[in-house]
Amino acid sequence: MRELFPIIENVKVDLKSLISIKHKCDPGVCNGKISCCAEYEICMEKDEVDKIIAHTPGAAGFAPQLKTNGLYNNVFDETDDNLITIDVDEDSQCLFAWRNSNGEVLCSLHSHAIKSNLSSYDTKPGSCCLWPLAIYQGSPEILTVQDDAFNFDCNKKQESKGAELDTEIASIIKNVYGDKMLVGINHAISKM
Ligand code: SF4
Q1: What range does the domain containing 82 cover?
Q2: Kind of pairing, strands 11-13 and 7-8?
Q3: Which residue's CA is the nearest one to ligand 1's atom 4?
Q4: Which ligand 1 atom lies nearest to the CA of residue 110?
Q5: Which of 59, 81, 160, 182 sits a CA distance of 20 to 30 A from 114?
Q6: Which residue has its alpha carbon closest to ligand 1 atom 8?
Q7: Is the full-model pTM beyond 0.85?
Q8: Is the domain of 129 the same as that of 106?
Q9: How open is the CA angle 154-135-79, to the nearest 5 degrees?
Q10: Which pLDDT tens digit goes with each residue over 131-151?
């Protein structure tokens, strides 16, 4: 039977949306245009902040605004609902973002991961790892595509014929949720 919102690994999965998008992160593509690092408020649970703080020294090698007079700035704020956000600069750009010599906006946590042979999934906030996918609140929570994702040039509509996940979208799901989730989603897509 066709099931467009199956529950897989305790998450309600919006299959139609997931197969509708292809994604390729290339900082050159958003140079001079809107960038995901200047568009969203990044929210984290408190326990995720420790991960970010652990990688801030490495990130500061790329993003000097993270330090003042040799000391690390507090770049976090607490929201009314007990989440933690990352501060932004006057251009609404996340304070972990930096520009390379080509003027491209890059994530310093990601750059630090590459330089240190780490996975960027282990250095960046979960919501950044998931982009252009997003989790929406619900019971269970819903995995879908960020509602304005197609405003960004790194995201394109995927032809519906064949009905399968784009390689990069599959990689995001695998890295964030694990193999079992990806297998479950692919199986559900094959039954659509
Ligand atoms: S943490 Fe990195 S990926 Fe996330 S918004 Fe900031 S600069 Fe962009």
Answers
A1: 43-124
A2: antiparallel
A3: 128
A4: 2
A5: 182
A6: 37
A7: yes
A8: no
A9: 105
A10: 999 999 889 999 999 999 999
Sign of the torsion angle spanned by Cα atoms 88, 89, 95, 98? positive
Measured from the Cα of 127, ligand 1's closest atom is 4
Q: How far is the CA of 191 from the centre of ligand 1 (A)?
A: 36
Return d(Cα 172, Cα 159) in angstroms, integer: 19
Domain co-membership, 2 together with 35: yes
Ligand 1 site residues, Cβ closer than 6 angstroms: 37, 42, 86, 94, 96-97, 107, 109, 124-125, 128
Q: Are residues 178 and 147 in the same domain?
A: yes
The predicted-structure confidence for 45-88, as pLDDT tens digits, reads as follows 988 999 999 999 999 999 999 999 999 999 999 999 999 999 99
- 58 alpha carbon – ligand 1 mean position (Å): 14
Are 106 and 27 spatial neighbours (Cβ–Cβ below 8 Å)? yes
